[in-house]
Amino acid sequence: MFATVDGVxxxxxxxxxxxxxxxxxxxxxxxxxxxxxxxxxRDEKLSGQVLQSRSGALKASIVADVSTQGGALTASVSSVxxxxxxxxxxxxxxxxxxxxxxxxxxxxxxxxxGAQHFARRVNHPGSTLPARGYLSxxxxxxxDEIVAEIASVADQAWEA
Length: 160
Fold this sequence. Notes:
Number of strands: 8
Radius of gyration: 26 Å
Structural class: alpha+beta
Number of domains: 2
Number of helices: 5
Strand content: 15-25%
Largest sheet: 2 strands, antiparallel
Strand order of the largest sheet: 1-2
Distance between the termini: 35 Å
Oligomer: single chain
């Protein structure tokens, strides 16, 4: 006795296409989620929620990146460029004692004790900065959404 099943070829083709479909969906979701996370960092955390914006350099340095290599997909949100204080604001730390010299004038001007002072150089004793996790707090807040979106990829690929 033999049985015939209609649609076996179509099912085989659909199953063969699933990995490529899932990869494309996963990359699209990762790109959208990484951009959303970067926007959250810029528009919320670096706009007063965690840090006040002064020059806007840190906010402008926040970028999302998605890359694939060897079948692995990586999404990241980070500070790029020459923003030297990005890491110490995120993780906290200690700055060493250092000399402060003017770079655009012949003297430094600063206020201390209610009066303005001028100096050719200032010896800064160093300081300890607390962690102000603008990246990590954003990721923590979006974690459930990210996990749910990534988990839905298999269902969406099968339905496509």
